Automatic annotation (TrEMBL):
Membership in a protein family: Belongs to the LysR transcriptional regulatory family.
Gene3D superfamilies from the UniProt entry: Periplasmic binding protein-like II, Winged helix-like DNA-binding domain superfamily/Winged helix DNA-binding domain
Coiled coil feature spans: none
Pfam family, one: HTH_1
Top-rank taxon, per record: Bacteria
Full protein name: LysR family transcriptional regulator
Keywords per UniProt: DNA-binding, Transcription, Transcription regulation
Length: 325
């Protein structure tokens, strides 16, 4: 019986790895997401292929793609992982303290601000004993939810293409023009700004980076000089050092403002951009916890943004009251 249990456990883990590889298109990215080495992830995939005597991945292309057998395996594996996740959730809901462990995914830009309060909320109000926190980009959150590596995520990606989820909006925030503190040039249009300063932005592998690129293409603005980074603190540090300008939201600016980086924050000229921060959880599995998390995150971020940016921050996060308290 113990041998069968171990085999089943290894098979489930191999399926988790396989689904993560298909979702991310990279063994390295899947391994990082699941907290293991690339070698261990590859061994899981090889073991799965050996068990069923099939080739599951076409490794000759980038990103890697599932073979015909891999497509079939992905469909069955996602169904099995969903069933296992539901079983685990049902078991956690038994007894006087049903939710003993909570796995929470957070936007990297807000993780430092909200993590301590969310841990206290989960422990004091919901009896959670163990917390596992994941900080990352919004692109990571879909894989975390799909592979059951997170129960709840606070994200700018509402995951509308996934069924069986409940969503609680936190707030909508506007993108802003962020300049070096000493910049004195014209900011009447983005066309003028890009002729004077390089654009510092998130890379195209991130949701924010892609959105900024799309916005500039719609405006037919082509920055002649671009610096890319994958963390908001890196972007704001380059701007504060006078290397260029950027386009960010208040939550993406929090860390830089807390560190008192010299920045000149203004409304974005021309067409507006915005995004919504949302708490996403598996539907009806966590009672009132997702709504409570959304309420806490809303209050915490509002206090931090208004404290660091004053009226400019209050105007940029423009529908706190419309969403509700």
């Amino acid at each position: 019986m113990e041998q069968r249990s171990a085999m089943n456990s290894n098979l489930i883990k191999a399926m988790e790895v396989f689904v993560a590889v298909v979702e991310t298109g990279q063994v390295t990215a899947a391994a990082r997401l699941l907290g293991m080495t690339q070698s261990a992830a590859s061994q899981h995939i090889a073991g799965l292929e050996k068990t069923y005597d099939v080739k599951l991945l076409d490794r000759g292309v980038r990103p890697v793609r599932p073979t015909q057998a891999g497509v079939l395996m992905h469909r069955h594996a996602t169904q099995i992982l969903t069933a296992v996740g539901t079983l685990s959730s049902d078991m956690r809901h038994q007894g006087p303290h049903p939710i003993t462990r909570l796995r929470l995914g957070l936007q990297a830009s807000i993780a430092t601000t909200v993590s301590p309060g969310l841990v206290r909320l989960a422990k004091n109000d919901f009896g959670v004993q163990d917390m596992i926190l994941h900080a990352g980009q919004s692109g990571d959150h879909e894989a975390l939810i799909r592979t059951k590596q997170a129960d709840i995520v606070v994200t700018s990606n509402p995951l509308y293409d996934l069924d069986g989820l409940e969503r609680h909006p936190v707030f909508t925030e506007s993108f802003l023009l962020v300049l070096p503190a000493g910049f004195r040039g014209s900011v009447r249009s983005l066309e003028e700004v890009v002729q004077q300063l390089p654009l510092v932005r998130f890379g195209d592998t991130t949701d924010v980076g892609r959105r900024i690129s799309q916005h500039l293409r719609r405006l037919r603005v082509q920055p002649p000089r671009v610096i890319q980074a994958d963390r908001s603190s890196m972007v704001t540090a380059c701007v504060a050092d006078g290397m260029g300008f950027t386009i960010l939201t208040p939550t993406l600016l929090i860390d830089g403002l807390v560190e008192r980086m010299p920045l000149n924050v203004r409304p974005l000229p021309g067409a507006a951009m915005s995004r919504t921060i949302t708490v996403v959880a598996r539907d009806q599995e966590f009672a009132s916890m997702p709504a409570a998390i959304a309420k806490y995150v809303r209050s915490s971020l509002r206090g931090q943004i208004e404290g660091q940016m004053g009226q400019a921050g209050k105007e940029a996060v423009h529908i706190f009251e419309a969403i509700g308290e």
